[in-house]
Each structure stands twice: as structure tokens, then as C-alpha cells.
Amino acid sequence: MNLESLLHDRLAPALAAVAGAPVDPAVRVSPHADFQSGVALALARSLGRPPREIAAEVAAAADLSGVATAVVSGPGFLNLHVADELITGALDALRHDERLGIAPVTAPSRIVIDYSGPNVAKEMHVGHLRSTIIGDALARLLSWQGHDVRRVNHLGDWGTPFGMLIEHLTEAGDGDHSLGDLTGFYQAARARFDADEDFRTRSRLRVVALQNGDGATRDLWRRLVAQSERAFLAVYDTLGVTLGPDDFAGESSYQDDLAGVVDDLAARGLLSESDGALCAFPAGFTGRDGAPLPLIVRKADGGFGYAATDLAALRHRVGTIGATELLYVVGMPQQTHFRMVFAVARAAGWLPDDVTAEHIGFGAILSTSGCMIRTRSGTSVRLADLLDAAVDRATVPAIGIAAVKYADLCSDRRGDYVFDLDRMLASVGNTGPYLQYAYARIRSIFRKADGGPGPVRLTDPAERELALALLRLDPAIATAAALREPHRLTTYLHDLAAAFSVFYERCPVLRADEPTRASRLALADLTARTLQIGMFLLGIEALDEI
After folding, report:
1. Secondary element (H or E) of residue 58
2. What is the pTM of this model?
3. What confidence score (pLDDT) does residue 369 get?
4. Are 455 and 518 in contact (CB under 8 A)?
């Protein structure tokens, strides 16, 4: 049961009658009552009446029988106190529902989520962490709601650097062993490319051979891709994310479509030549000098840039996969690029009005000194090393991974956050381990309990606060999914765990007499199940024992 929606539906007709037009009751959780509406304050000026008078008229007109009582407070707030019978009845119904009352959406969308996206022949580094974790949490949330979610891992597996990499691979002389350390392999190839003119020439010829489909060159390229994919999958396995081998869809997937993208855009009059390059100039995008900002589709040398590949991928996802929603989980610096890609796709007719495309941006990960995380040599930290450090510091590997993932998800994704293992691994506060310990504590209760849960009774304020918290799962999940903001769910889960902690301290469970004991076991069981679902949606493992 979504209490906010229920109260909204009961207040809305009364508000419309008082205001003379539909008005959103804006029901919110409040520290002064179970819920509160301050809409009377907003209506006071337009209606020319005191807000307390408006609130009182709404309270009198609203059909709240069996649902809540309404009391006018302060300058005109409407405080709402939910009926205990409604709370206990709702919780008793949830005890027998494996989805805890949350039904799948009635009109599911086909949603393509583009996330992670590392580069072939390079180790995943700390910069890939946020896209991977945020994207996977959104994929889990939307899948759980019942949407048809298609995960896409848009690998960087094409382009001029591969001539250098393939040529180096042919001369390494030790087969795939040279690919064991992808970072070292890439650095060695780059060093040769920068220092050896003959090697640079051969590398450029390799690019031509790759693009023209030369069999031997393509075989070497496939070895690079396969070894890289194995390395990526090992990191995903450690992180516990749901990306798999079938989700890889690299830039190479769209190479045969790029010429057609250019031809279609040109035929629609959407391309202009600029310094030899073919560019789109979507309306409303300007540079610092006020001049129109170009989206380079084909470069002056005839090659294709990221924009062409992104447009081809978008066209494929809508036209072939049939997506009705597109989510791109990529860092905030790419915001303008994706807005321009979406604008050009709209103008080309590849992004119809009934299909949405969103850039799900996120901030950077900083060190405790407030700088970007780097090694002593100034390079990006390998993601595997970062995860190893978290696992080594934790008592249980799953706790270390939970700490890293939760720290990434627990604040607004648009902002930067500090990677601080001491804080992340704490068993108290807003951390992943705090949720895991709360869940394990509840499971320990049931290992000692005789008998089981029974009908819920509310005899103590702490029981009531926990009960209300349990009924807020539905809006927490709905809001996190709709706004693409996983921190809405982490905040809810932390508040629920905190409410259980207060309940556990004030309300003995195993020592209570029946039927209070059975009721408190029911509250504990519902809390554990709610935490388990919530952690699953975040990609965090729930541990029965720690």
C-alpha cells in the first residue's frame, strides 16, 4: 500500500472543490505527523482567504473515514495521522505477498540502458565504477518494476588506436600471453608508436587493413576484444553486477551503418561542411563565443567520430530493438554531447515523439584530499585494485563490495563523492555494511525464536514508526526509478534500518508475551524482507550471518 497515494486520492477531490480547479495535495512525510500537506498555504493568495481556513474546509470535506484524521496546525498545514487499523491491516496483507504489495507496472516499457562502456585493450579503472554501479542499480530497479530492460555495454573496440595495438600484438611473439596485463600491453604499444616512425607507418596500414576486413588483421583484433571482455567480466563478477557476455555491443557493431547515417542526415539537409568535416548544427547549441556548436559526424579525413557511432546506435536501439526509453549512464562532462545527439536524432526522425532519451549523468570520484583518484605516477587507479583494497579491509568480501557500491549510490549521482574506505566500511551510519548488519541481526532473532510471526499489533510508538516505515517501500522504489536516482532508495533503506534499531532497543521481541511477541516477530520479518529486496535492487548481498 502506498499511503501517500491513498491520502492524495482522498484529499484531491476536496481540494478541487475548495479551489475550484484540480490541485495537487502535495502529501509528504513529516516529522510533525505521519504525513502533511501544505497546499493551503500556496492557495491562500489566489483564493484570497486565510490558509488555516482553507485547510480546515479541506479537512472537513475530505473523505478520510477509516484512513486518517486531519488536524490543522501552524499557519495552515494539514497534519495527517493514519489510522492504526489501516496500518496493521496493510502489514498483515504484506506478510503473505512476496513482492510486499508492489505490483508490476501495468504498461511496461522496453528500456535500453547503456552503461559501463570500458575500452578494449585497457584495464577498467576507477572512472568506470560509477557508470557500472549506477547503471546496474537502474537496470535492477526497472526490471523489478516489470519493464523489459535491455542492458548494453557499449565497448570502445574500434578506431585508429587498434592499428597500433594489432601491430604490436603481431610482433610480441608470445601469443595471448602478452595480453595478460592489458595496461602494460597498451603502454608498450603506445611507447613504440611514439618512438618508432616505421612502427607508426605499419600501425596506420593496420588500421586500413582492419577497416577493409583483412582476415588476419580481423583475427588479431578479435583476440584483443576477447581477452578484454574476459577481463571485464571478471570485474563484473567481483562487483556482482548483472552485465554479461551477451550485453557487449561495441562501437564495431555499427561500423557498417555509419555511411548510411551520413547519407540519411545529408538527404534531410541536416549536415553542413565545416573545415572539411560534415557537421550537424542542432538549434540552441552555441559555444562560448556564441557561434553555433557543431556535432562532428564525419571528420575531415573521412573517418567517423563518436557522434556518428552514437547516432547509429540510437537508430538501431529504436528501430531494431524497439526501445521506447533510452538511458545513457555516462559522466556529466558528456551532457552536451548527448543532448546534441538526441536533438539531431529527433530532427532526423530516428527518435519519435513517443520515445524518450535521457543522459543519466554523474559526478567524479575524489580522493580524501579532494582530488581525482590517481596512482603515484599520475595514472588512473585500476578498478580491480580498488575493489581488492575494499575486500582486504573488510571482515567479509561481500561487505567490502557492499561498502563500495553503497557509497556510490547513497548520494545524488550528479555530485562528486569522496572515496573513503574508513567511512564506507563503518558498521554505523549511512553505509552498506550498516544495512547488512541490520539484516543479519534480524536473521539472528529467528534462529533463536520459538514460534513465528502473527498478526501485527501496535502497542508502542517505536512499533508504529517501524510499521509506517515499512509501508514507504513502494514510493521509495517508484521515485528512485522514475527520477533515475538510486539514492532515493538508499535513503529509505537507511531510515528503515534506523527505525528497526530504535524498535529493537525499546521493544523486546523474544521476551515479550503473546500475542505481542508474534506481532513483533512479524514486524522484524517484514523489515528483513524489505531490506533484502532493497539491497537486491542496489546489487548488495544480504548476509544471514556476519
Report:
1. helix 51-61
2. 0.94
3. 87
4. yes
